[in-house]
Amino acid sequence: MRLPGPILFVIAAIIGSSASADEPLSAPGSENDGASRPPAAAQPTLLVGVLTQQFREVCKGQMDNEWVDPWWEVGFARVTLPPGATPESLKGKPVVVTGRSPADVKYGPREPGGTGCVIMQARSDWVVGKDGIRMVRGYPAGTVLVSEFLADSLEPFQGLEARLVVNSMKPVASLGNKPDPEEIVVTFTNTLKRPLEKVHLQMHYEGCYGKPGSEMLGHDAGTVPAGGKVTARFPVIALGDRSGGKRPPEAHLAWSVQVTTASSDTVIDLDVNLPDLGVKVECPREGGKE
Fold it and tell me: What is the percent of the chain where pLDDT is above 90?
């Protein structure tokens, strides 16, 4: 997930926590120790994620910096593109990369970055970059992630959709059993021509008011065959109690959709902001309290 550049100066120090939801939603933990290494005989040959251009930060003063030595990443994996590749038109979009991981690749999630040259308070899940903040999320057990990938080819990935719908007004657990007039329907289509194991869809929520914390709601889809689809429904607002009941729960707005898999031959580190999927939602009024 990506936060725009101005958020770099928001003061925050709250780590994302979990929230409950109606079945089949679950609330995954916020730790990143769920990633694993695939068997040596089944190294990843596909990588799916959002293509971004990253830079090395050079500090020129306490409040001044310069971004140099650009490279490409898909998700949080650094990608070496084939000679002559022109990926600029796909920047900021989901892509699928065919290739392989190097023999000495590191497995597991990316470590969050520091605050960089510009002094500020930062949340523990932030990775600061030239174009804003990216966030390292918790990953379900068994998720396969790599630090580097050698690309043979790159093309758009069009297997993720989201839409805003009016629901049945049934009580929603994440809203304290109050009705939610809207919800977000997320559909993942396996366009990769191979089955995917332990596919997990997750909605990430950012706090509406006060110190910006986060919440996550997840849906375990199991094995999705080639060409198969899975759909999950998420509330627009998730409530989080950070005061142990001393204050009313705080509203968190649906922000981005994350997709992962535990398939040994495929890395999916896909995190797409809702506006990029055509879904626009807003925080509730009156201080965000329901």
Answer: 45
